[in-house]
Specification:
This protein is an alpha+beta fold and 88 residues long. It is globular and about 40 Å long.
Amino acid sequence: MVKIDPPRRLVHKWRNEFSELKSEGYSRCVMALETVDGAVKLSITHTMDRPESKFIEAVSGGWPRILSNLKSLLETGKVTMETKVAAG
């Protein structure tokens, strides 16, 4: 399911298809844009209706790296760190 409120909000759900994380079911990710002091703020909220989710723990470490690279790319045209994609 994907819900879009252009140009402010994107809501989608997905299930990780790798290893034991698949059995945790679907998560919900909300990406919201808002204007703050002449700039655009991106907020990402990733949740799951499962206490102590290993999937949420994993993405909690991934989102900061992705957003840091996005910020660097937008500001300098280069990423600061390479990310590795897990083979499935």
